[in-house]
Amino acid sequence: MPLTLQPTHRRRWLWLLAALLVGGLAVPAWRHLFPVTAAAGWDYRVYQQGISRVSALALDGKGGLYVSQEALDGRGTILLLAADGQRREVLGGLSKPDGQAMFRGGLVTGQEEGPGPVLWLHDGQRSVLFQADSVEGIAADGRYVYAIEDKTSGGRLLRYDADSGTLEVLRSGLIEGEGVSLCDDGRLFYVEKAKGWVKQWQANGVDRLVVDGLNQPGFVQCTADGLWITEDATHMARLLLVDPTGRLQVILRHLRSAQTIIPVDSSRYLVAEQGRDRILEINRQSMDP
Q1: CATH of the domain at 276
Q2: How many domains does the chain fold into?
Q3: pTM for the model
Q4: CA 172, CA 44: separation in Å to the nearest integer?
Q5: Is residue 264 part of a domain?
Q6: I need a labelling partner for 157 at 20 to 30 A (CA). Which of 31, 148, 201, 241 fits?
Q7: pLDDT 10s digits, 268-281
Q8: How far apart (Å, rounded) are the C-alpha atoms in residues 123 and 186?
Q9: For residue 209, what are the domain limits?
């Protein structure tokens, strides 16, 4: 004989199912909508918004900001945001442009979607520096351009010598290499997102582990404050700082797919938050009473 629920019991079961459904949806909704929070001594504001797929940032040295839009299939672009807020496209037809650095008066950018050229935009002209595969992170000094490949296996850390035109493989066999940063003192750091760690490259081949156990680390940036790290997680991502003493600090929480961080001056930084199509400005608060 089939089991039949009485009306009172049926209503109770329906209320229970509804409560479970609402509770199950509440957790992802909370993670999605919870606002960014800053650590003591820091605050933030929205610097620019409404920039779809915002990823890499670079200051042009003239008051403008280069911004990459990480779209696929040749739909990616590089925008220049002028000091007055106006935006114009300066480079198009790219496939997931990601990683940017100023180099010899121009902009270097990589493309993450498969094999392709690392490009140099200078004097309004577009030049190919070298070929690589799935380049995400870019760093540069006056002579070298460093690039890291974001591949599920066999990624490389590369160094291009602009004087000789030669390309050197500094590391191979990387898994989801994303960020690379060069310090003023010559130290070189890189990220393997799938491993959840940041390492310092060593010429002897045994790289030093800086920090591990991170939630999808993406970009790194070396500054006087220490080593900045962003997490590329869809929810609950953080902006981290390894200070000069080696202490790991959480500066921002509840980010969505944080990407590049760059310094504006000694107390201000810009952070691309791709998951919300915006750029944040973070500021060290004054300690004056």
Answers
A1: 2.120.10.30
A2: 1
A3: 0.88
A4: 38
A5: yes
A6: 241
A7: 999 999 999 999 99
A8: 28
A9: 35-284
